[in-house]
UniProtKB/TrEMBL annotation:
Protein's name in the database: Rieske (2Fe-2S) protein
Keyword Oxidoreductase: yes
Taxonomic source organism: Streptomyces luteoverticillatus (Streptoverticillium luteoverticillatus)
Domain named Rieske: residues: 26-129
Metal-binding listed as a keyword: yes
Entry keywords, A to Z: 2Fe-2S, Iron, Iron-sulfur, Metal-binding, Oxidoreductase
Pfam families (UniProt xref): Rieske (PF00355)
Amino acid sequence: MTDGFPSLPAEGLPAEGADGLYSQSWFPLCLSEDVPAGAVLGVEFLGGKAVVFRGREGGPARVLSGYCVHVGADLSVGEVVGERLRCRFHGWQYDGGGACVATGIGDPVPPRARLFRFPTAERHGVVWAFNGEEPLFGVPGLPYREDELTVRRSVLPELPVEPWLVQAHTMDLQHLCLPHEFVLDDDPNDSVRIDAHSVGFDLRARMRDGERFDVRVDIHGTNIFWQTGTLDGRWFFWLAPLNIPGPGRSRAVFVYGAHREEDEDPKITEEFLDRARTAMMNLFDDDTPVLGTIRFRPRHLTHGDRTLARYLDYVRAYPRANPARDYLT
């Protein structure tokens, strides 16, 4: 900071995939319902392919690198046998930890034959994979059990933009009052919080149509939008994590919901979620034309950009890795 103004961001904002490295975060690969018992699903991830599969009897989803280590066949066209994933080409089988446990012809398994196993979690109806050998933080939770919530989920079309840049719009607090036309109760810059793996702020305002909007907004990693709070006094949540299929690309999952009031007619809950979705999608629609066309070059920042400047410093310092790089392509 100089004379009360943010320092000009230096060159070097990290492009995802530069030097083969990506932000170390949890990424949404698919919805849990997309991988029923005995299914295998291929997903573009970190510039290559991963596979998500579930055992024949159900159980947890597993996420592994997507190509057989024998001769490179695509495992997403394979099949699940018991708790193992079997390659369609030569029958090599892998357990949930990625180890090859059998060859199709019966030869001994080479001692180093294994896939990369991504740390995996299933929360909020989403299958998440962490880019790293061990997670740096957990998938955030909600204050209510899922069986107490009415929840909706959807996967959006791909955007030609990196997740950290989508989240830069969230941390660009002056645009709350400009394209979004919020009327603020107080300055959200005063509530900004930053730690090693998340940034966020509190927003107390009225929306352009007069709705009361009191929420806590957090960005976990560089790709997970996480919002909880109230719309006209009623609690709801809105999660919008983004996957990275490859450099310069992102794909969002929307998960949102409300706590069911005791003895409430389900139609009332659904009507409230319709209102919440309309409010949030109006904000999304404000930003989409910009996100699809921006050439992000923050050259002349002012005092109103001080939180954006802090976020950009957070992105620059954020840990990046890709221990699966030799397995994904």
